[in-house]
Amino acid sequence: MGEPFGSERLFLTDEQIRQGIEAMYFAYRGLTTEPDRILATMAYGRAHHRAIHFINRAPGTTVTNLLEILGVTKQSLNRVLRTLIEDGLVESRVGKIDKRERNLFLTEAGTALEVRLSDAQRTRMRATYREAGPEAVAGFRKVLEAMMDNELHRKYQSLREGNS
């Protein structure tokens, strides 16, 4: 079977890369299992979760900004937002500076759902990080950030710094 992925060599074989890709798929599945279960009871999917997550991270974000972050079509995002607004989880307000903009905010019910969804993920991440240790966590973050293209990395940094 050869060396495990993550060996100390600088050159990784196609099989080791494939194992890394598969590990990411399965890890993502593990990270989304509990939120998916919660969302299914409401007839929502991961697109709803991502919208709720990023509206929570950047209250007042514009629809345009959310489109850039999520990388989905306007039509797809509008379907998700329409449902979340109709269900009383998201509020859309006219922009204070530009009246054509719509600023998005979670309602109290939206915030409560976001907490339920993210609590499950934080619990899993906290336990995983604790088990892996600080060096592995730092390495993991470095790998994830290196996988982002420049524009996505800028968006990610902006969110980390509290900008929308």
Explain this structure.
The chain has 164 residues and is mainly alpha-helical. Strand 2 (90-94) and strand 3 form a beta hairpin. Helix 1 (14-40) runs antiparallel to helix 5 and helix 2 packs across helix 5 (108-132). It has helices spanning 14-40, 46-57, 63-70, 74-86, 108-132, 134-147, 150-160, and strands spanning 61-62, 90-94, 102-106. It has a three-stranded antiparallel beta sheet. It is built from seven helices and three strands. The mean pLDDT is 91. The longest helix is centred in the N-terminal third of the chain and has 27 residues, at 14-40.
Q: Give unreliable regions as ranges.
A: none
**Based on DSSP secondary structure assignment, what is the total number of beta strands?**
3
Strand order of the main beta sheet, please? 1-3-2
Order of helices and strands: HHEHHEEHHH
Mass-distribution shape: globular
CA-CA gap between termini = 46 Å
Summed up, the helix count is: 7
Q: Rg, please?
A: 18 Å
Overall average pLDDT: 91
Content-based structural category: mainly alpha
Give a quick account of the main beta sheet: strands, pairing sense, barrel closure. 3 strands, antiparallel
> Strand-residue fraction?
5-15%
Q: Specify the helix fraction band.
A: 55-70%
